[in-house]
Design goal:
Length: 276
């Protein structure tokens, strides 16, 4: 008897509802210029965001341990990875002139530390390239049936990219618990980092039974990165509040959330062992 799986359509509907509510909150009940709430408590919002990150771990034990949809090829995952990678790599490239200016002018080190300037260039560039390369591999064939392992050392660049983005958002952005966009982006970076670590297992360790954590981390990444941060990014972009690197990063992380949706959806399907 096959085990009852979580329903991917429920995750999709929940994400759409979360995006609509967050969009309405930005338009009606929040101050766009400061990020403070004009109506209601920020703590209720934070409770919903934390629930979106953590609650998917409850039904994750019913997900497929080895999703059959990720055992050979997966075109939707590959396409989402390629586009997310292109956007992240572009965010690093457009930051290069700023890093070069800082390198040429040492008096700027106190404002923009040199290691931080070059980390803003190198980490998203390498992480984006990894996503593009392995996105193409997801389209052509990977995993259990092909038995082709990726390079473990190269896979470090994606978690490193997202870890740096988390540190940057937590440390270098003037944050306040009352400023909702800052807190949202920190939680979104956490969700993206958790998903990236599990995504590596799909490519680097074919056949590893990681479907439970893949569903949980993928769902959290979709809800936080796509349904919340992407909506926030588009809202601020239309108001002219973002510089180009931040816009590209927000779009890239939003598309990474779609990768999470594809993986979570696959974990809701049949297990590879059931199809043998």
């Amino acid at each position: 008897m096959k085990q009852k799986r979580p329903h991917g359509i429920l995750l999709l509907l929940l994400g759409l509802a979360l995006a609509v509510v967050h969009g309405a909150d930005l338009l009606l009940w929040a101050d766009a210029s400061t990020g403070f709430a004009r109506s209601g408590s920020v703590w209720w919002r934070y409770a919903v965001w934390l629930a979106a990150l953590l609650l998917p771990y409850l039904p994750a034990r019913r997900a497929a341990p080895q999703p059959a949809a990720l055992s050979d090829t997966n075109l939707p995952l590959g396409i989402c990875m390629v586009f997310a990678g292109v956007l992240l790599a572009a965010s690093g490239l457009v930051t290069f002139p700023s890093a070069w200016v800082v390198t040429q002018n040492p008096y700027l080190f106190t404002v923009y530390p040199l290691p931080a300037a070059w980390a803003d260039v190198v980490t998203p560039l390498l992480g984006g390239v990894w996503l593009v390369v392995y996105g193409v591999r997801a389209c052509l064939g990977f995993g259990l049936r092909r038995g082709h392992l990726g390079h473990a050392l190269a896979g470090v660049v994606l978690p490193l990219c997202l870890l740096w983005r988390l540190v940057w958002r937590f440390q270098f952005v003037p944050a306040s618990l009352q400023r909702m966009p800052c807190t949202l982006r920190v939680l979104s970076a956490v969700a993206a980092l958790l998903f990236a670590v599990v995504l590596l297992k799909v490519f680097l360790v074919p056949g590893l039974p990681c479907g439970h954590t893949l569903f949980a981390a993928g769902s959290g990444c979709f809800l936080l990165c796509t349904c919340l941060e992407l909506v926030q990014t588009l809202f601020e972009a239309f108001r002219g509040m973002l510089i180009l690197p931040d816009l590209l990063t927000g779009l890239g992380i939003g598309l990474l959330g779609l990768c999470g949706l594809v993986c979570a959806w696959a974990a809701c399907g049949p297990d590879a062992a059931e199809e043998e």
